[in-house]
């Protein structure tokens, strides 16, 4: 682990019911589990469990970026219901939008469930941080990040394959993945010599 850059990652579960204790939050454990399996870097997690309130979500994202998170993943609140405001709260703190992530996430989701088109999820850059919205269904976390595999063959690439190079480009740490979970892509010129 010593030769990998350390990274701080913000994980935010956004759900009225999980944050008020109506049901147990499965979003933060699913995010932590997947990231720990996928990344070879030592990760410090900054975790937040909050209700679907736009100002609260935006303030949490700003706080996590200011705390040095190179990557922030949210789960929940991306649908069409009146209280689903995660995309608006994310865009409100954006320096740049990264539409390719949302497009690919919905394409991946459609391989699993027809209602994937109901997710308005976005990804943005704020400062030196990449912020990505994932849907609230805990199973959608692995689906979206890892994509679809069959007999070990990658049928649909997950969006995480593009995350390490994106983090390079905004001046973050060099993220290295376990290829068995997620094979990241970088142009040859961006590969770090071993
Ligand atoms: N954080 C979570 N932990 C566990 N299960 C969740 C979580 N978020 C969503 N789910 C599950 O996914 C389903 C669909 O997500 P939905 O968007 O309706 O939830 P939600 O936005 O978290 O709802 P609410 O904010 O009202 O609690 C939920 O009914 C629930 O079973
Ligand atoms: N990969 C994936 N994407 C998915 C889903 C899923 O199960 N897997 N659920 C969909 C459903 S049912 C909804 S309503 C939207 C929005 O969910 P959210 O409001 O919980 O964020 O995400 C969609 N995207």
TrEMBL record:
The keyword Transferase applies. Pathway: Cofactor biosynthesis; molybdopterin biosynthesis. PROSITE patterns: MOCF_BIOSYNTHESIS_1. Keywords: Molybdenum cofactor biosynthesis, Nucleotidyltransferase, Transferase. Signal peptide: none annotated. It is an enzyme of class 2 (transferase). Pfam families: MoCF_biosynth. GO terms for molecular function: molybdopterin adenylyltransferase activity. The keyword Aminoacyl-tRNA synthetase does not apply. Residues 10-155 form the MoaB/Mog domain. Gene3D superfamilies: MoaB/Mog-like domain. It catalyses: molybdopterin + ATP + H(+) = adenylyl-molybdopterin + diphosphate. Its EC number is 2.7.7.75. Catalyzes the adenylation of molybdopterin as part of the biosynthesis of the molybdenum-cofactor. NCBIfam families: molyb_syn, PRK09417.1. This is Molybdopterin adenylyltransferase. It comes from Ramlibacter alkalitolerans.
């Amino acid at each position: 682990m010593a030769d990998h850059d350390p990274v701080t990652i913000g994980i935010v579960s956004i759900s009225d019911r999980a944050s008020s204790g109506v049901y147990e939050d499965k979003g933060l454990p699913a995010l932590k589990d997947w990231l720990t399996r996928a990344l070879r870097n030592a990760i410090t997690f900054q975790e937040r469990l909050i209700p679907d309130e736009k100002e609260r979500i935006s303030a949490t994202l700003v706080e996590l970026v200011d705390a040095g998170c190179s990557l922030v993943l949210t789960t929940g609140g991306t649908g069409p219901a009146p209280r689903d405001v995660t995309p608006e709260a994310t865009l409100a703190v954006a320096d740049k939008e990264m539409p390719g992530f949302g497009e690919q996430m919905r394409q991946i989701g459609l391989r699993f469930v027809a209602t994937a088109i109901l997710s308005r999820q976005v990804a943005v850059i704020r400062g030196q941080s990449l912020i990505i919205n994932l849907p609230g269904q805990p199973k959608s976390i692995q689906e979206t990040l890892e994509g679809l595999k069959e007999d070990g063959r990658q049928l649909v690439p997950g969006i995480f394959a593009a995350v390490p190079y994106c983090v390079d480009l905004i001046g973050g740490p060099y993220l290295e993945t376990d290829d068995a979970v997620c094979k990241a892509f970088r142009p040859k010129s961006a590969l770090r010599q071993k």
